[in-house]
């Protein structure tokens, strides 16, 4: 393999991993607060269509990202209201949110399917043109945002007082409540943060990967993000490794479809199924390692019901 | 004026039945307002989606045909969810059931005999159950989350259809279309009412739901599913195995999804095509909840959901509303239902402002 090809592969891997990484980081914070939001896929789709429409109308990519985040927050608030204020079943509400987001995005995206937009350009255009340094500096702002958030969320959870409170709410909601922290308030903030991240992750699809809108264009990546959080044992840096691993699997599919080489001997459908099968395998491997489930936030998925 | 939630001493049975009805009504009202706000004919959309399929007798056969797979899959899911086993990969199990039945139909191509359809049915049930056995095995052996595995397997099964109809099962006379040949007469589901499209799957769906209702309310199996789901610790003391329950829940829900897959491929489709996955497996999740995880309720919920499907198609041709609006309406219904659940355990009390701070 030539250096050029290796660099090209790395750049594709980083691009393919970025939406999964951003969505999974958001879900990680949500789950650390003790809430299981299975609506990531739906919020991503709402973010994707919002970003597409904004960039189509205004041509401003950063405004599109911002509005996608806002749309993600708005969608996540439906989930938050039902599960936190009305203590509805989190699994069922999350599923409903995904069905809702899928339908809403398809409805809003009617008539936009054949229209082209431009991708978000690299953050450092000068370095992006360099045949070697583009491997480090040739990416768009979304990629650096994802990497920054890995460190920021790690720092927040590990080193800040607010992060400690968030973890306390996820590990033992009743104690956190009795010390005087607002469990529901903290969880609302976490859910909204998860919504913003899912919205931005959705924006990656039309702005970073394919410059167009297609129904269900996130193709289950939101679910893979949820699985990755388990894979990463709720730790940000493991999430980074996991997301890039999945990016690699998806990139192999792209190269196999492009034809040539030993990869194309395998049916293209198997390549397309591979990220999903890999998710199952990864979940199996992580449970064999035993510490995975013990790392889960103790209150994950349970409604907060103080005895009153 | 202030409102306050007050815990009921025991869950309200009236609310258990009232909230699904309220959810449907609220969906129609809010849907009409919402769709008007975003520039559609909101009232027209609601009328076409919810009422036209009922008032137009030509649409009744469509209702039956659409409701049948939803009721069969929804029944299986209601049993699994009762046991707190979150099989959300019914779509994949439906696909595998359809593929297994297709395999039998293609292997017996050109043959005649009454045994072909029952054999396809058995293959369909086994195909769906086998696919659900993977999450069951991983959950019981390794404690892998069944939500994620069953869903990931759904995405993989869609690719399996694409592969099979593109290469090994492709119709040799199909002019290159990626689909299997039309099944022979003996592998096609008969219609039960002449000149309509109502096939044998419709009465089968009703029978499945009635049998499931009887089993769930009258047998040890049903009791075990409910106890393990509602009170796992008590169930363990009572000697019910949690692992056995997980296996049963996934095999039953997977097998029924596979049965629905067989009935669809042998009924409306009569061949395997790439468009076979029609989201019945996902919509059935809403059906199970709207039916209150009770097989009798699932029959009604299945019909309501079928109305929105048929109505969605009506609205598409009559007022040009996108098909995806149906999904928005269905999700709204589930949102309202889940929101209304709180009224089962709590009641809303109006409190006068001055009394608000006084403890009861």
Q: How would you describe what is shown here?
A:
The complex is a heterodimer of chains A (308) and B (360). By secondary structure, chain A is mainly alpha-helical. Chain A is 73% helix and 0% strand. Chain A has one domain. In chain A, helix 2 runs antiparallel to helix 3 and helix 2 packs across helix 10. Chain A is globular and about 60 Å long. The termini of chain A are far apart. Helices cover 69% and strands 3% of the residues of chain B. The C terminus of chain B is likely disordered. Classes of the chains: A mainly alpha (308), B mainly alpha (360).
Architecture blueprint of SSEs:
The complex is a heterodimer of chains A (308) and B (360).
Chain A: H1 3-32, H2 40-58, H3 61-85, H4 90-108, H5 125-128, H6 134-137, H7 141-159, H8 161-171, H9 173-179, H10 183-209, H11 221-231, H12 236-258, H13 268-288, H14 291-294
Helix pairs in contact in A: 1-7, 1-10, 1-11, 1-12, 2-3, 2-4, 2-10, 2-11, 3-4, 3-10, 7-8, 7-12, 8-9, 11-12, 11-13, 12-13
Chain B: E1 2-7, H1 13-37, H2 42-55, H3 60-82, H4 90-107, H5 116-142, H6 146-166, H7 201-218, H8 220-230, H9 232-237, H10 242-269, H11 280-290, H12 295-318, H13 324-340, H14 342-345, E2 346-351
Antiparallel strand pairs in B: 1-2
């Amino acid at each position: 393999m030539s250096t050029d090809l290796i660099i090209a592969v790395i750049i594709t891997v980083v691009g393919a991993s970025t939406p999964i990484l951003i969505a999974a980081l958001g879900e990680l914070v949500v789950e650390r607060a003790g809430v299981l939001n299975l609506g990531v896929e739906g919020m991503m789709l709402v973010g994707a269509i919002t970003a597409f429409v904004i960039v189509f109308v205004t041509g401003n990519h950063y405004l599109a990202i911002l509005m996608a985040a806002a749309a993600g927050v708005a969608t996540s608030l439906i989930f938050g209201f039902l599960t936190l204020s009305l203590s509805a079943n989190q699994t069922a509400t999350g599923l409903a949110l995904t069905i809702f987001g899928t339908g809403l995005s398809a409805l809003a995206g009617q008539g936009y399917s054949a229209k082209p937009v431009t991708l978000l350009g690299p953050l450092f255009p000068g370095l992006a043109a360099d045949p070697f340094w583009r491997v480090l500096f040739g990416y768009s702002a979304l990629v650096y945002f994802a990497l920054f958030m890995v460190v920021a969320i790690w720092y927040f959870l590990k080193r800040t007082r607010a992060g400690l409170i968030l973890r306390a709410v996820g590990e033992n909601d009743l104690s956190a409540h009795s010390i005087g922290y607002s469990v529901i308030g903290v969880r609302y903030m976490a859910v909204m943060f998860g919504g913003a991240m899912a919205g931005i992750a959705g924006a990656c699809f039309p702005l970073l990967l394919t410059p167009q809108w297609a129904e269900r264009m996130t193709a289950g990546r939101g679910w893979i993000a949820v699985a990755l959080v388990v894979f990463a044992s709720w730790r940000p840096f493991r999430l980074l490794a996991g997301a890039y691993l999945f990016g690699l699997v998806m990139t192999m599919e792209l190269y196999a479809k492009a034809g040539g080489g030993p990869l194309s001997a395998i049916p293209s459908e198997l390549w397309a199924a591979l990220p999903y099968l890999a998710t199952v395998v990864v979940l199996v491997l992580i449970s064999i390692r035993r510490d995975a489930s013990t790392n889960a936030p103790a209150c994950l998925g349970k409604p907060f019901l103080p005895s009153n | 004026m202030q409102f306050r939630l007050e815990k009921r001493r025991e869950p309200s049975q009236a609310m258990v039945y009232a909230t699904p009805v309220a959810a449907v009504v609220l969906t129609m009202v809010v849907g009409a307002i919402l769709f008007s706000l975003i520039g559609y004919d909101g009232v027209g959309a609601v009328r076409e989606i919810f009422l036209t399929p009922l008032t137009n007798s030509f649409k009744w056969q469509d209702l039956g045909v659409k409701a049948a797979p939803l009721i069969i899959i929804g029944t299986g899911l209601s049993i699994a969810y009762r046991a707190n086993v979150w099989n959300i990969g019914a779509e994949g199990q439906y696909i595998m059931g359809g593929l297994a039945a297709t395999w039998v139909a293609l292997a017996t191509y050109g043959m005649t005999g009454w045994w072909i359809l029952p054999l396809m049915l058995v293959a369909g049930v086994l195909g769906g159950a086998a696919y659900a056995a993977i999450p069951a095995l991983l959950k019981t052996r390794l404690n892998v989350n069944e939500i994620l595995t069953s869903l990931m397997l759904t995405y993989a099964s869609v690719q399996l259809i694409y592969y099979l109809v593109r290469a090994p099962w492709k119709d040799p006379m199909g002019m290159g279309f990626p689909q299997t040949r039309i099944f022979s007469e003996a592998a096609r589901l008969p219609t039960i009412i002449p000149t309509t499209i109502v096939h044998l799957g419709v009465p089968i769906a009703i029978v499945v739901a009635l049998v499931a209702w009887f089993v769930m309310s009258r047998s040890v199996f049903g009791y075990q599913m409910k106890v393990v789901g509602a009170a796992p610790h008590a169930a363990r003391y009572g000697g019910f195995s949690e692992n056995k329950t997980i296996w049963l829940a996934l095999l039953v829900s997977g097998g029924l999804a596979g049965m629905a897959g067989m009935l669809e491929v042998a009924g409306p489709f009569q061949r395997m095509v790439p468009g076979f996955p029609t989201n019945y497996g996902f919509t059935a999740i809403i059906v199970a909840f709207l039916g209150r995880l009770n097989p009798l309720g699932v029959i009604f919920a299945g019909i309501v959901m079928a109305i929105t499907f048929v109505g969605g198609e009506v609205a598409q041709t009559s007022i040009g509303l996108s098909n995806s609006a149906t999904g928005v309406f269905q999700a709204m219904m589930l949102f309202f239902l889940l929101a209304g659940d709180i009224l089962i355990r709590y009641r809303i009390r109006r409190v006068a402002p001055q009394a608000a701070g006084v403890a009861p």
